[in-house]
Amino acid sequence: MKSIIGLLTSFFAIFVPIQGLILFLSFMIGLDTVFGIYASVKLGGWCTFKSNRLFNLVVKSFFYIGTVLLAFLMDKFIFMGVLFGIPFLISKAICLFWTYIEVKSVDEKSVKLGNRSIWVIVREAIKKYKNFKKDLDEKEEH
């Protein structure tokens, strides 16, 4: 039993450098799942909530986290931890890609509920920031 615990501890200790990526990706998967359940119940009532949809959570988590772990192993053992001067670049890129998919999924569900798209809100915020900065620059010149 002690050797199995030691083996598992050693296995998980390898992945300590990317634990933040794994936790963040797990959070995003959970957020998408909770928002999906909320949207489903809000639009169609509790009868639309099915347990087989929760099984997709397991499959998605296993696939997403598995690809990040595989990318980490490539980063660590093929590229010696650094690619183009960025530590664990492939792991971060894969995590960013999966995060984008999860944000897009939450956005689609939000739009179905009648809200504005996240991307429209961000674009408007950037436009307001640019106008505000432009106004400040003009006031400094006068």
Structure description:
The protein is mainly α and 142 residues long. The protein has one domain (2-114). It has five helices and two strands; from the N terminus they run αααββαα. It has helices at residues 2-14, 19-44, 51-77, 89-112, 118-141, and strands at 82-83, 86-87. A two-stranded antiparallel sheet has the order 1-2. It is flat and about 75 Å long. The mean pLDDT is 87.
Mean pLDDT: 87
Distance between the termini: 76 Å
Q: Please indicate the percent range of residues in DSSP E strands (runs of 2 or more).
A: under 5%
How many distinct folded domains? 1
Helical stretch count?
A: 5
- The H-and-E topology, N to C, reads as HHHEEHH
Structural class: mainly alpha
The tally of beta strands, per DSSP, is 2
Across the major sheet, the strand order is: 1-2
Q: List segments where confidence is low: pLDDT < 50 over at least 5 consecutive residues.
A: none
Rg from alpha-carbon coordinates: 21 Å
Helix percent reads over 70%
Largest sheet: 2 strands, antiparallel
Global geometry: flat
